[in-house]
Each structure stands twice: as C-alpha cells, then as structure tokens.
Amino acid sequence: MDQLSTQSAVGSEDITDDSTSMLDVQWSSDEELSSDPQGQCLPAPQSSLPTYKQRLDEFKKLFKELPESERLIVDYPCALQRDILLQGRLYLAENWLCFYSNVFRGTKITLTLKDITSMTREKTARLIPNAIQICTATDKFFFTSFSAREKSYQGVFRMWQNTLLDKPLTSLELWQMVKQHYGNDLGLSHEEMESLHMSETSMHTRQRGLVVPRM
Questions:
Q1: Which intervals hold domain GRAM (predicted)?
Q2: Cα(119)–Cα(68) distance, rounded to whole angstroms?
C-alpha cells in the first residue's frame, strides 16, 4: 500500500511539472506573437463613402427627364413601402424629390416639390419612428428605414417650404447643405464647380424674368 501511494504521488508531481512546462511554453508563445506587430490582426480597411460628384452623376443618369440645370442637394438611403419594402435611395434636389430602387425590375418616382401637399413623420408598424409619409393630390408615398429620420425630414421639409414660398436657396445655403452631408471634399473639379455656379445664376435669373446679356 505504501508503495502504491508513493508511486501515485510521484506520478502526480510529474504530471504537474509537465503541464506547468507546457503552460510556460504556451504563455511564452503568446507573448512573442503579441510583441510582433506583424503577427497581430489589423482591422480591415474601411471603404470610402461616395463623394458628392459620384452621387450627382448617379442622379443625372437615373433621372434624365429632369432639367439639366437641376442640382442634387442630398440623398438618403431608405425604403418605399409597397407590398414589400423596396430598398433604395431618396434624392433631394432644388425643385424635385426623387426615389429609385433597383429591386426586381426597378422603381422610379419623380415629384416636383410644388406637387407635395403634406409631409408627416410616421412610425413603421406603428412602433419604430423611422418613416416619412409624403402626399400629393393623387398619391401617398410611405418611405421608411431612414437611419436619421429627423434629419432627413428637416432637409426635405425645408426645401419644400422654400419652394412653396418661392424662396430658393442662396448659393451659400445650398453648398452648406451639400457639405454638411458629403463633407468638404466633394470630388468636383474647379471647372465643374464653375459650371454648377453658372447654371445656378442662369436658373435664378430666369425665375426672376431677367435677361442675361450675352458676352
């Protein structure tokens, strides 16, 4: 019996020593990896957000029926509620509100801001406050899944009210709204900026009934 007990004790000591040495090796290996910057997992690079120029080109391509002088101000990812939710994007321009979704065969909506009769904040499923309902004399459009519903509502509401009051944004106000959404780097060349400013001057002059003398 004493012999068995002794052997058992010796065996347990051997196991403890072996496991300790294995743990030491494991900890040492972990420390070496953590001290090696090349061995560490680095976060994946984030894809850059689309610039204003990219969204403007997209807007022009999708809505070719709009006047050439019409300028995009901001766009909002959202969904149109029909039989199913049609994920897409709402485009707010100076005089138009447009929506496009490429789900199934594609859905496209173009509304002049003057045609809008009412705008209301709504809740999806009467619970989630992430929707806006826009009505005209003949249609109702329920847009949902806004990531920042209040900011989106305020942007569209402001442009709608300015249109009804016949008070277009000044150049400074327009570019402030654009840069608040897309940042200072709009991706536009100097020539493109000049072209947009020229189209704005021409459009405002026509609205006031003035004639621009040709140089």
A1: 57-123
A2: 27
As given in the structure block, the two tokens for residue 118 are: 């009412």
pLDDT value of residue 202: 46
CATH: 3.40.190.10, 3.40.640.10, 1.10.10.60, 2.30.29.30. Which one for 63-168?
2.30.29.30
**Domain residue extents for the chain:** 63-168
Q: Determine how many CB atoms are found less than 10 A away from the CB of residue 124.
A: 17
Return the number of other C-beta atoms located less than 10 Å from residue 155's C-beta.
Answer: 19
Report DSSP letters for 148-167, one per residue: THHHHHHHHHHHHHHHHTT-
Q: What is the pLDDT of residues 8-43, one digit of tens each?
A: 444 444 444 444 444 444 444 444 444 444 445 455
CB contact at 8 A, 149 and 126: no
Strand ranges in 47-105 using DSSP code E only, listed in sequence order: 72-81, 85-93, 96-101
Going across the sheet that includes 118-124, the strands are 107-112, 96-101, 85-93, 72-81, 140-144, 128-135, 118-124
**Residues 95 and 73: beta-carbon distance below 8 Å:** no
Q: What is the pTM of this model?
A: 0.69
